[in-house]
Amino acid sequence: ASSASPDRARGELPTAPAPRRRSERWATMSVVRRDDIHGIAVSHRDVAGAPRVVMVHGTMDRASSLRKVARRLPDLDVTLYDRRGYGDSLGAGVAGTIDDHVDDLLDVMGDAPALVLGHSLGGIVALGAATRRPDLVTGVVAYEAPVSWSSWWPRSTAGSRAVEEHADDPE
Predict the structure, then answer these.
(1) Cα 163 to chain center, whole Å?
(2) Fewer CB atoms inside 10 Å of the end CB: C or N, the chain?
């Protein structure tokens, strides 16, 4: 006797559920609340008593690019935000320095400690926040962060230029 389902025995694939709109998929994970912090659009998925993760998107991206990652972390309290000048935070103006981005991340975090996951330039922002506030940033995941201080790193990337421009900043 075969253990395959009747559909598979006939060579058919099981049908997938109808796809949902992106906003519905995010909303079905848990309670989502939205905030505006100095013009910065912030989304929170609150999971009571869970560890907190704040995600920072990269250059030329937005918070929505990290929602797939957030959906795979259903047991965590997750905060996403559009950095100044991107996505729903266009009205907040443009952050002129890495320090401005770090200030914004720390404002988004408030007083609640969190692990910070940053992609690309967001990784540099996460590392900057951890350096400035090690009491608040419990850990950092810096995924594909530019490492322009390495001799092999290409000098022509936007992330490298942003870091290089502020390499002599005292903070």
Answers:
(1) 19
(2) N
